[in-house]
Structures are given as structure tokens and as C-alpha cells.
Amino acid sequence: MTILTVTAKGQVTLRKEVLQHLGVKPGDKIAVEVLPGGKASLSAIKSKRGLEGFIGSLHRSGEPARSLEEIDQAIRNGWAGKR
User: Fold this and answer.
1) 29-39 b/e with 16+ CB inside 10 Å = b?
2) Between residues 66 and 7, the one the model is more confident about
């Protein structure tokens, strides 16, 4: 069992061995499920890395997907120093 201390701000730092057990790295997310009896369950949210994580990362909720022509124009503008 690992004992953690709660700070005055209500924060807890997870120890390295706990993070390794969960398989998380900096920037990853951890889900906390509140259980009956004052208990909680932690689980890692697997993040997609590499190309799989990049695909769709530029999409903005509520905005239509960009066409290939719009994407090409944005690339050309970027290389030309335009915004």
C-alpha cells in the first residue's frame, strides 16, 4: 500500500512507482472513479502517440472539417509567412 499526503490546496502527488504501475508519462491523463465507502479507483487513459495521435488533433469542435484545398492553401500561406 502507498500512503499519500494531501496538501493544503487539496492536491496529491502520485509516487513514481504508482505512475509506473499505471503506465503513464508526463502529459497523460488519469481517470478517477469515485466508489462507495470513501474509496476511489485510478486508471490510465491511454493516449494515442505518433501519427495515430496526430490525426484529427487539429479539428476544432463545432467547425466543419477542412477540405484538401483549404489545407494546401494553409500550408502555402505558412511557407510564405502569411497567416
Assistant:
1) eeeeeeeeeee
2) 7
Question: How many angstroms separate the CA atoms of 81 and 2, rounded?
Answer: 53
Measuring CA to CA, which residue among 38, 83, 39, 40 is closest to residue 30? Answer: 40
Domain residue extents for the chain: 16-79
Judge whether 33 and 41 are in contact, CB under 8 Å. yes
Distance (Å, whole) CA 51 – CA 73: 22
Could you report the per-residue pLDDT of 25-77, keeping only the tens digit for each? 888 889 999 999 999 999 998 766 666 666 776 677 788 888 888 888 888 88
* Phi, psi (rounded to 5 degrees) for 33: -105, 120
